[in-house]
Amino acid sequence: MSHESKSETQDPFHAHDHDHCAASVLRRAEEQARQEGVRLTPVRRRVLEILLESHRAMGAYEVLERLALEGFGKQPPVAYRALDFLVEQGLAHRVRRLNAYAACLSNQRDHTPAFLICRLCEQVAEADTPQMREALAALAAAHDLTIERSTVEILGICARCAKAEQAKAQDV
Amino acid sequence: MSHESKSETQDPFHAHDHDHCAASVLRRAEEQARQEGVRLTPVRRRVLEILLESHRAMGAYEVLERLALEGFGKQPPVAYRALDFLVEQGLAHRVRRLNAYAACLSNQRDHTPAFLICRLCEQVAEADTPQMREALAALAAAHDLTIERSTVEILGICARCAKAEQAKAQDV
DNA sequence: GTTATTTATGTTATATCGTAACGCGTCAAG
DNA sequence: CTTGACGCGTTACGATATAACATAAATAAC
Ligand SMILES: [Zn+2]
Ligand SMILES: [Zn+2]
Ligand SMILES: [Zn+2]
Ligand SMILES: [Zn+2]
């Protein structure tokens, strides 16, 4: 079983090999840094690792706390700069609804996925479908807008949390 | 010429009768307030009017300044409360990318349109197409997410601004 | 190898956005 | 006339984000 390109898009909301997620993103980060001549410095790498601990989106200040504990700088720009770097490199995404950041799970350098956010566990999945791309393009075309960036975020409750809620309701 | 239901969706990026925009939204606001037993108080109404001066999204503090000048309260909650009211009533929308608010241009009470935002003139158009709704539903379904809210924002350059940019470039 | 240049990290300070909590005034129900 | 709900105003604070500057590390030039 050595299908390399198996997991184009992992889905955090369902069972998956998360170590694989983390490892593959880190690997991509290193390769990409080498190729593009940018530096994956200790802070930057560490921030990516922190984001990769789970698929939960983290606020900049939450990341900063972790950095401070580990001997990095204690002031906001330290976190924001590392996060900005990761976002620029397509290694992390900003989730606007949560004012938070999540590691990117795709292997593509530049992409603008839609985010699926569970309101309860705050995990974030990304999805990039032709259907959505077409819908966006159609909207832009209809209004003569030259599209530069787009944000698609879907907030709801994931299957796991929905099940948990149901169980809780029956307990009462 | 008395086609009442002509303008389901005005497009701020193109020539249109803006007085009509403003008047029709205010009319809807009044009707709706009566019907739902909520109060369109002076501050609330004034905030809606301010938003309706153009299709540009305005930050809460920008609205607040205007209110202060006109003798209303000078503190943030004054603006935020009025804006929250308008958003709840579906009379205004929050544009997350801009941390700003824009008057709603639709006649529908509850809807979640996509926003088209011009980066240069900061005007905002709304659009609600079946195609986009389906794309959102498909994404949610594919990930077993029970959808509660969604955000679709497209940032770019509107036709008018694109033209202006071109002209400027040729001048040089 | 030493120097110059760029890039990254850290700091202080401040800007920007948003909310909690409380008191007062208004108005309508009882 | 009291009571209770609601809206508006305040003070105070919390949360998010960036500007500006000093230092240090890495890279490039000589
Ligand atoms: Zn994973
Ligand atoms: Zn969940
Ligand atoms: Zn208009
Ligand atoms: Zn424009």
TrEMBL record, chains A, B:
A Pfam match: FUR
Entry's cofactor comment: Binds 1 zinc ion per subunit.
InterPro entries: FUR (IPR002481), Fur_C (IPR043135), WH-like_DNA-bd_sf (IPR036388), WH_DNA-bd_sf (IPR036390)
Keywords: DNA-binding, Metal-binding, Repressor, Transcription, Transcription regulation, Zinc
Cellular component GO terms held in the UniProt record: cytosol
One BP annotation, GO: negative regulation of DNA-templated transcription
Superkingdom field: Bacteria
Keyword Coiled coil set for record: no
Binding site for Zn(2+): C118, C121, C158, C161
UniProt cofactor(s): Zn(2+)
Keyword flag Protein transport: no
Molecular-function GO terms, alphabetical: DNA-binding transcription factor activity; transcription cis-regulatory region binding; zinc ion binding
Protein family (similarity comment): Belongs to the Fur family.
Protein name as it appears in the record: Transcriptional repressor
Gene source species: Paracoccus aestuariivivens
